[in-house]
Amino acid sequence: MPRIVVDVMPKPEILDPQGKAIVGALPRLGFTSFSSVRQGKRFELTVDGEVTEEILAQARDAAETLLSNPVIEDVVNVEVVEA
Amino acid sequence: MTELPLIGEAIAVAAEPRLAGARIGVVTFPGTLDDRDAARAVRLAGGTAVELWHGDAELGDVDAVIIPGGFSYGDYLRAGAIARFAPLMSKIIDAANSDAKLPVLGICNGFQILTESHLLPGSMIKNDHLKFLCRDQVLRVENSNTAWTLDYEAGQEITIPLKNQDGQYIADEKTLDALEAEGRVVFRYVGFNPNGSRRDIAGISNAAGNVVGLMPHPEHAVEPGFGPESLDGIGGSDTDGLGFFTSVLNKIVGGDK
């Protein structure tokens, strides 16, 4: 069944405390090549049947109203993934 | 309803009988923790507490609403994000924005719900140090003209408990400047910023002053023997939070005084 994937990231100008903690932990494990980490969220919305333009529009609407908070986050991607 | 003291004969204040006519709704969501404490604070201040359920379709006969602290819906998605769409919330949002200007107080998770509802600007993100923090916190009352701060003096310092993980208040610079210019920063952290909140902001109001949200918990500082002073004596008194509740009760009863 097709899924609609929605990716949400903290806005660039907002300090991401979780990403900061992760970037601090990486070098302790020997991963020294990464200067910054930002942590976002991925949502997978399963659709029973075909993904129409209308359903995709609904997903975009849901992404802006519930899945993200526009004050602190951006919806960076909404795409259809088959099976 | 008579409130039994938790210890000894101590009752925080001799509540004025005339305030009992004021009905303050306290909303319970799945995961709310502090609804009983908030209702108790209302009663100790002399008012009548009314239990409200998030799934209720109507607000009923209440003169003000408190959205208490806790972890509604387990803080899933974002703190307050799912509670914001509860059936009762749309009624509260309408009533708060109406000409009647229903007084609404959001405490901690309630504050997060109010920002998610767009009744208050900005948002809360994880504390800058990433830890859950519980401490007695000194606040300065910056605005004593809101529905919930009338019984305080501007500039007064109060000490009430603070306990949260997602308490870092943020908004863009333009919004912060507007909040400052319009006197809508209602409380500021004093001495120590416990979570990295912009400009030490602990609580804000809407433009009309009927909607107030803050991260610390006034309902936990309403009774002698159970407030900050008895823990470590950092100042204030055990009942510094009581003024929130007497403020709104006095405002509601108003002309009868």
TrEMBL record, chain A:
GO terms for biological process: 'de novo' IMP biosynthetic process. Its EC number is 6.3.5.3. It holds the Pfam family PurS. It is found in: Cytoplasm. Pathway: Purine metabolism; IMP biosynthesis via de novo pathway; 5-amino-1-(5-phospho-D-ribosyl)imidazole from N(2)-formyl-N(1)-(5-phospho-D-ribosyl)glycinamide: step 1/2. One of its GO terms (molecular function) is ATP binding. Keywords: ATP-binding, Cytoplasm, Ligase, Nucleotide-binding, Purine biosynthesis. GO terms for cellular component: cytoplasm. It catalyses: N(2)-formyl-N(1)-(5-phospho-beta-D-ribosyl)glycinamide + L-glutamine + ATP + H2O = 2-formamido-N(1)-(5-O-phospho-beta-D-ribosyl)acetamidine + L-glutamate + ADP + phosphate + H(+). Its main location: cytoplasm. Belongs to the PurS family. Part of the FGAM synthase complex composed of 1 PurL, 1 PurQ and 2 PurS subunits. Part of the phosphoribosylformylglycinamidine synthase complex involved in the purines biosynthetic pathway. Catalyzes the ATP-dependent conversion of formylglycinamide ribonucleotide (FGAR) and glutamine to yield formylglycinamidine ribonucleotide (FGAM) and glutamate. The FGAM synthase complex is composed of three subunits. PurQ produces an ammonia molecule by converting glutamine to glutamate. PurL transfers the ammonia molecule to FGAR to form FGAM in an ATP-dependent manner. This is Phosphoribosylformylglycinamidine synthase subunit PurS. It comes from Pseudarthrobacter niigatensis. The lineage of its organism: Bacteria, Bacillati, Actinomycetota, Actinomycetes, Micrococcales.
Automatic annotation (TrEMBL), chain B:
It comes from the Bacteria. The keyword Zinc-finger does not apply. Pfam families: GATase_5. Its main location: cytoplasm. It is found in: Cytoplasm. The active site is at 108 (nucleophile), 217, 219. The keyword Hydrolase applies. Keywords: ATP-binding, Cytoplasm, Glutamine amidotransferase, Hydrolase, Ligase, Nucleotide-binding, Purine biosynthesis. Gene3D superfamilies: 3.40.50.880. CDD domains: GATase1_FGAR_AT. Its EC number is 6.3.5.3, 3.5.1.2. InterPro entries: Class_I_gatase-like (IPR029062), PRibForGlyAmidine_synth_PurQ (IPR010075). It catalyses: L-glutamine + H2O = L-glutamate + NH4(+); N(2)-formyl-N(1)-(5-phospho-beta-D-ribosyl)glycinamide + L-glutamine + ATP + H2O = 2-formamido-N(1)-(5-O-phospho-beta-D-ribosyl)acetamidine + L-glutamate + ADP + phosphate + H(+). Pathway: Purine metabolism; IMP biosynthesis via de novo pathway; 5-amino-1-(5-phospho-D-ribosyl)imidazole from N(2)-formyl-N(1)-(5-phospho-D-ribosyl)glycinamide: step 1/2. NCBIfam families: FGAM_synth_I, PRK03619.1. Part of the phosphoribosylformylglycinamidine synthase complex involved in the purines biosynthetic pathway. Catalyzes the ATP-dependent conversion of formylglycinamide ribonucleotide (FGAR) and glutamine to yield formylglycinamidine ribonucleotide (FGAM) and glutamate. The FGAM synthase complex is composed of three subunits. PurQ produces an ammonia molecule by converting glutamine to glutamate. PurL transfers the ammonia molecule to FGAR to form FGAM in an ATP-dependent manner. HAMAP family: PurQ (MF_00421). Part of the FGAM synthase complex composed of 1 PurL, 1 PurQ and 2 PurS subunits. This is Phosphoribosylformylglycinamidine synthase subunit PurQ. It comes from Arthrobacter liuii. The lineage of its organism: Bacteria, Bacillati, Actinomycetota, Actinomycetes, Micrococcales.
